[in-house]
Amino acid sequence: MFSKYLWLFPLFISVYLLYTHDYLNKIKFDDFMQKGINIIGNIYSSLDRNPNSISEANVDQKVFAQNELGKYTNLKDGLYISILGQVFDVTKGAKHYGPGATYHVFTGRDASLAFITGEFNDEGLTDDVSSLSLQKIKALNDWVKFYNENYIYKGKLSGRHYHEDGSPTAEMHNIQRMLKQSKELELNEEHRKRMFPPCNIEWKPDSGTLVWCTKKSGGIARDWIGVPRMLFESPGSQQSRCACVKLDSKEYEEAKGMLREYVGCDKLSIKCSVKIDNT
User: Fold this and answer.
1) What is the C-alpha to C-alpha distance for residues 79 and 97, in angstroms, rounded to an integer?
2) Which of 110, 135, 139, 225 could be disulfide-bonded to 127 (CB atoms 3.0-4.6 Å)?
3) 168-199: buried (b, 16+ CB within 10 Å) or exposed (e) per residue?
4) Rounded mean pLDDT of 110-134?
5) Distance set, CA 148 to CA 61, 113, 114, 154, 239 (Å)
6) How far, in Å, CA of 212 to CA of 184, rounded?
7) Where is average pLDDT lowest: 54-63, 75-84, 164-173?
8) pLDDT (tens digit per residue) in 212-257
């Protein structure tokens, strides 16, 4: 760890030798040493800084005005798009975003809503995403991740999602809250799938739908098999999926209100021929 600073020792030795030979007696030694220490401290600090880290002050946080972003719709100036107020240079994808290409309508503006609706008209090419559900906001954020991974981030767009100083607006704060909710729901669903793994399902014209449980059904490995049950989203819901349930588990006792046996299927059977009907 300290090997890269070994070269500093000869500097200290040189100062010491100069001092002992009265070379520095004509100047105030304390001042000289303090200046030397400051210089060395600055060198040390610069060496110890992680070259791969970028401080917040150095991060490119350019904030575009709408009329400024509108200039980037051609190959000469570049092709820029905005999604949820974040601006990306997509020039390298000119075959998709260049003049005459399918997605050229996205350049020079924030048309976030159209990423979800696919409507490339005046009403659809808007940054107003207030009509989108939690799941669709998550899908839109997945597009933001895609552009971050595949294109060049250039800054933010002032307007609906960011203020002129780059700080998030109330609408952006709401989107962030929705994304947090979406993540929590995703984690809850993952936890639920581990408690009640999906069944294997097969449909055949002559025999109908067959559901069965194994120790790896639903792609979730475990040391028990379980029996097929209809698992509803909530006690009053009409939507269900087939889940493998361990009857002697605490989870089963706690979720009985959301579980139902398949008609005509033995309650202890690990395989059932059933009628799937979520209507």
Assistant:
1) 7
2) 110
3) eeebbeebeebbeebeeeeeeeeebbebbbbb
4) 94
5) 14, 18, 18, 10, 36
6) 29
7) 54-63
8) 999 999 889 999 999 999 999 776 778 889 999 999 999 889 888 8
